[in-house]
Amino acid sequence: MKRYQWLANAIVILLAASPVLAQKGTDGGGHADAKAGIAQQAPPISWNTKMPWGPMEAAVRTRWAGLPLTAEKVEPFKVFDNVYYVGVQVVGAYIITTSEGLILIDATYAETADTVLEGIRKLGFDPASIKYLIITHQHFDHFGGAGRIQRVTHARVGMSAVDWEGVERQQSGPQVGDQNLGLPLERDLIIKDGDTIKLGDTTLKFYVTPGHTPGSLAVEIPARAGGKTYRALSPCVGINPSPDLTKPYINSIERLKNMGPWDTLLPNHAFLMPRDSAIAPSDFIFQDLKPVKESYPGVIGPERINQWFDEILMVAKEKLASEEK
Ligand SMILES: [Zn+2]
Asked: What's the 17 CA to ligand 1 centre distance in angstroms?
């Protein structure tokens, strides 16, 4: 693992994705051209090396090996009684089951939209019963597959207004690197801060939390297990290299922390978790495509989650201090 350390730091920066990288003509979305992007990057920035989740070198193995994105496929699995993981290795996606259909959080890449749909079918669900597709933010690894999934399922697609603009700008602009932005999305549901979506017996709450992107959405999900309902948060926590987003990021993370207590996290990238929790690189990304766990002992608890928020805030504040010098 050691020899990849330097690269891992760079990758975390890439994964955070940013207009800064796009302006430099590299990989604005973060993933599509990791190898080429890294070669053009400045040396790793120290504040990223202290991220609580640390390196995630294995996450790009498939790309280094020149394999297609579909090689990131993992077996779908149950996370809670009403929450299922249907994402790929690097990018998360979740199905929330309700009494009146399904809600899908994030679409993953354009290339893996069908992988997600296949996973949903494998779990025994019909993609046609997806009523809502929520895109957490305007990065192609989350929205790229949305156009395809929208056409197959006829789900309503929701995003924050500012990230809708971002998607539209990207899809109507020139291609950046080899990013596949997927089938064009038409603006549908605009999700505002504090909005809720109720489907049958389930209500999701949304918070617009600028930082990872200008309009990142955090989703509050009632996660059920063993007759109990837990407060689950799906946040966007990757630090964006852009200095313009540092203060908004800190404000958003502080806000999410103050909205606690949170019982558990449903990360939109598996590596963006406290290192010692169940969906962590050691269990998940480093699994070399072995089937992932059947169940998820995922109630981390507010204490660990607050500690995690504090670790993130510490890093973000170091970044801010370095920018203000
Ligand atoms: Zn992102």
From this structure: 6
Ligand 1 centroid vs 281 CA: distance in angstroms? 18
Look up the CATH number of the domain holding residue 233: 3.60.15.10
Q: What separation in Å is there between the alpha carbon of 59 and the centre of ligand 1? A: 15
* Type of residue at 59: A
Query: Which residues make Cβ contacts (< 8 Å) with residue 209, sequence separation at least 6?
Result: 216, 217, 218, 235, 236, 252, 253, 255, 256
The whole-angstrom separation of Cα 168 and Cα 14 is 22
Q: How far is the CA of 228 from the centre of ligand 1 (A)?
A: 31
In the chain, how many domains are there?
Answer: 1
In the three-class reduction of DSSP (H, G, I as helix; E, B as strand; rest coil), residue 69 is classed as: helix
Query: 225 C-alpha vs ligand 1 centroid, how far in Å?
Result: 29
Distance 154 CA to ligand 1 centre (A): 24
Say how many Å lie between the CA of residue 37 and the centre of ligand 1: 16
Q: Which domain holds residue 218?
A: 2-324
Determine the distance separating the centroid of ligand 1 and the alpha carbon of 88, expressed in angstroms: 14
Q: Distance from the CA of 90 to the center of ligand 1, in angstroms? A: 11
Task: Determine the distance separating the centroid of ligand 1 and the alpha carbon of 137, expressed in angstroms.
Answer: 6
Q: Are 268 and 106 in contact (CB under 8 A)?
A: yes
- Centroid of ligand 1 to alpha carbon of 94 (angstroms): 16
Measure the CA–CA gap between 94 and 82, rounded to whole angstroms. 10
pTM value is 0.80
What's the rounded Cα separation, in Å, for the pair 57 and 160?
31
pLDDT digits (tens, 9 = 90+) for 73-105: 888 888 888 999 898 877 889 999 999 999 999
Rounded to 5, what percent of the chain is helix, strand, coil? 40, 20, 45
Rounded distance, CA 105 to CA 268, Å?
A: 9
Which CA distances in Å does 231 have to 204, 225, 283? 10, 11, 23
Q: What is the pLDDT of residues 102-143, one digit of tens each?
A: 999 999 999 999 999 999 999 999 999 999 999 999 999 999
